[in-house]
Structure formats: C-alpha cells, structure tokens
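Structure (tokenized):
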C-alpha cells in the first residue's frame, strides 16, 4: 500500500507512524520543508495544496489512498477535487468535518440529538471556559474565574462574540474514544484517559482508561449516537469529561486524531489507519474485537532543557522540525524526537509500554530518571510541571 499523508504536523506524525507500522510506503506532502513528520516518511514533496495543484495532481495519481492530516478548509477542498479527478480514495468525510470543525455547530448538533454537554454561559456560573469556535485543539482556550475578567473579555471581543464558545468549567477525568462509521455500521475502539497541561493541551494519554463500567458503557453509547447522527464515514474521536458520575461531551473531531491512535495500537494492537483505509479503499468496516487484556501504555510529550524536564501538551512538538523514531530511548519503548545528543532544548514524545498500566507508569518514571541522569548540567530539584 502506498499512502499519501497530506500535512506533516501532529496528525501527519500520527498517520506516518501508523503507516510505517503497517509496512506501507509513506509519501508526505507539506509546504513546510521542516514538517515534523518528514523524518517518518519514505518520500517528501514540498507542495502548497492550493497553489500547486498540478504538482499535487502528479503526486496523488501515484498513490493508493490519501489521508488528510490538516485543518485548512481550502486545502481540504483542493485535495478532495484532486483525488476525485484521478479516482484515488480520500479518507475524509466533508459533512461530518463541517460540523466538528466548529464548536458552535457541534454544540447545536449535540442539543438537537440530546447529547449532554457543558452548560453554556450565561446559564452557568463562574468559572467558565472560553474557546475559539473554529480552532482545533487547545488553541486560544482560557479559563475565566471572575466577573471583572469576563466583562473585560466580552468588551474586548466587540463584534466577534459569535466566534467564541463560553461554557461552564468542569473538573474531573477526561477521556477520548474513536469511532468508525460506514453506512449503518459503527465500531468503537478503546477508551483512553487524558491529562492536560496548564494551556488545556493534552500532555499525556494513558491506556487502558481507569473508568467505571457504567460510564464506559454510557460513553460508548453516546459516541455511537453522535456517529449515527452525523452518518459518519471514516473516523471521528469524541472527548468527554466526567463530573460527579456524569459524562459530558467536550468536542468531536471527524478526522484521524493525534496521540490516541498510537496509544491504542500499543495497548491492544489495533491500527486505526488500517481500519480507516479499509473503509475508503475496500468499502468495508471490520468488527473491532473486545480485547480483555490490554497492555498498559503511557504516551506523553517532554521538553528537556538545561534546567530540567517538563511534561507539556503536544503543541511543543509542532515546531520541533523533523522527528525521528528511536527505540529504547532512555528506557522508553519508543520516542519520536529531535534529540541529537548535542543541543538544548530538545523535545520527545515518549511511549512506554508494559503488562499493565501501573507497571507502565513505574517504567515511565524510571525513563524520566534516566533522562535526568543524562543531562550534562544539574537538574533543579524542584518538580517541573507536575512530572
């Protein structure tokens, strides 16, 4: 199989890694010559998806499937037009993505089909979370705890209020779940547990999730209800928060996500890119087995400098330049990193695997110690960013 990954940032890293694990030939396309995924592909083409249409056409007609790993709507339209013209499957559900890429449209959709979500302001009290409606991930997310700060925020918005979502701030464990859809067939994979940094960006993914069975069943039911409502073809991930035993949906993304697919692959051996490809190439959706003995996985991002180690959200990987895969990296089973042994700071995604999650966590803590011992300058004894 020869796959073109369109976009070389974080989702492109995920897709390229998954494709390499399948033994596929990976063609990466991005206008940035230093895209992080460039170190994980077999061939790279620097190309602007909108302006270099003829070049894009030449590249795509030589592959078996195109997987989008970007958010730009004009670029996605160009890719859709190009793949259609040459008859190459494009792993993209435009209608579902239209809903999921807007938090306002998503919340309207959730209300329409009866899905529980955080209460919107002003029907809720403080604190609140303010989110840009059409930015992905944690970009621009802010917590506001006082009336004065909320008033100042609203005043500064002027006429752009419609571009923001303001809703109640909830505390509790966060979980993610991927679902695949094809016609009237839907399959969920494995629930993973998420931890956020101070910017509300996911800094750590853990599997298997520590979630009560009743909430697990509720989460899976909610996820399939959303997928059915969207008539989903392909993949979507659903992120929720649990407060006082109640699941509330935070957001959805109808595209291949980052972080969780690799975690799931290492925990239960299921490669989401293979399922996604089958849906679009073979028009079939395989049944996902209910595996009872998952391995424990800790997946996290670290930034290492002369003063110590920080565990941070995945945004630290976006501008790190081409990443390389290194096995047995300071004891971690796999790392995706720009580490060259010479310069600080450097970053890495660390993937640590063991028989169960507790053992994986202890192994992960030893990895952090090994990195600390490998630093050439003294590390502050003060814990950095809740390691």
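Design, position by position:
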């Amino acid at each position: 199989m020869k796959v073109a990954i369109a976009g070389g940032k974080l989702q492109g890293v995920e897709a390229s890694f998954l494709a390499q694990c399948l033994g596929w030939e990976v063609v990466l396309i991005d206008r940035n010559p230093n895209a992080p995924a460039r170190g994980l592909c077999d061939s790279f083409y620097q190309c602007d998806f909108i302006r270099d249409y003829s070049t894009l056409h030449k590249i795509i007609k030589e592959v078996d499937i195109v997987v989008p790993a970007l958010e730009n709507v004009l670029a996605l339209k160009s890719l859709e037009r190009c793949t259609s013209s040459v008859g190459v499957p494009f792993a993209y559900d435009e209608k579902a993505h239209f809903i999921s890429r807007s938090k306002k449209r998503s919340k309207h959709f959730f209300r329409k089909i009866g899905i529980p979500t955080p209460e919107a302001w002003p029907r809720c009290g403080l604190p609140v979370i303010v989110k840009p409606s059409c930015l992905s991930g944690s970009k621009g997310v802010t917590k506001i705890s006082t009336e004065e700060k909320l008033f100042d925020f609203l005043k500064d918005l002027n006429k752009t209020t419609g571009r923001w979502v303001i809703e109640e701030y909830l505390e509790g464990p966060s979980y993610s779940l991927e679902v695949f859809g094809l016609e009237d067939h839907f399959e969920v994979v494995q629930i993973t547990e998420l931890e956020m940094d101070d910017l509300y960006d996911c800094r750590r993914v853990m599997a298997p999730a520590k979630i009560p069975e009743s909430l697990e069943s509720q989460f899976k039911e909610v996820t399939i209800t959303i997928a059915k409502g969207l008539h989903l073809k392909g993949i979507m991930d659903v992120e929720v928060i649990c407060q006082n035993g109640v699941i509330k949906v935070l957001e959805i993304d109808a595209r291949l996500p980052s972080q969780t697919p690799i975690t799931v692959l290492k925990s239960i051996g299921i490669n989401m890119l293979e399922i996604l490809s089958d849906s679009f190439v073979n028009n079939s959706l395989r049944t996902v087995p209910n595996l009872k003995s998952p391995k424990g996985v800790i997946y996290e991002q670290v930034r290492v400098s002369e003063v110590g180690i920080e565990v941070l959200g995945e945004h630290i990987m976006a501008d790190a330049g081409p990443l390389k895969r290194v096995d047995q990296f300071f004891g971690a089973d796999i790392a995706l990193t720009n580490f060259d042994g010479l310069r600080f700071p450097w970053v890495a995604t660390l993937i640590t695997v063991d028989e169960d999650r507790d053992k994986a966590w202890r192994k992960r803590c030893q990895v952090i110690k090994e990195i600390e011992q490998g630093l050439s300058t003294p590390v502050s004894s003060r814990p950095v960013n809740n390691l």
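Reviewer-requested clarification: The chain has ten helices and 18 strands. Residues 377-385 have pLDDT under 50 and may be disordered.
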